[in-house]
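Reopening: DUF1697 domain-containing protein still failing for me.
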Amino acid sequence: MNEWVVLLRGINVGGINIKMADLRAALTSAGFTDVRTVLATGNVLLCSPLTAAEVKAQVESALAQTFGYQAWVVVLDVPTLRAIVDSYPFDAERDGWHPYVVFGSDDSHVTELSALADELDPELERIDEGNSVLYWEVRKGNTTDSTFGKATAKAKYKATTTTRNVRTLVKILA
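Support: Ran it again with your exact input. Result attached.
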């Protein structure tokens, strides 16, 4: 039995509102065990003998059937998430800055976004490549209007990326 981290994109922030108790119930009904949610922004830990790709497909199907929306999720195992957090290249406690990880399920999209590195103002934001992720540091108050923030919000990346604060990821791993 494997423990998986499932990161849902765009719930409880963009018009798709799901109660965490309902989310846990839906995923339990879909056959997953030990389903736990962390915060109310679509962070789930669950157990399943399935592969990551199978978990992704089953979770997306269960969410579509239960909540009536086209769900997009990123699935990874706990050791992989721990390695991603441990590899954060910036100071996650830097005062006045947000530490983020952008997860991608399409490597070509991660590559496209990483190409923006040279266009960014380092006084406002920086990115660095990781293992199928991008690490992003941005000044507080500039997340949505920064060059990188605007790029990640484009429709073409909606189904393949999701962003989490490093502090949230630490809570998932706790």
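The chain is about 35% helix and 30% strand. If you still see a failure, please send the error message rather than a screenshot.
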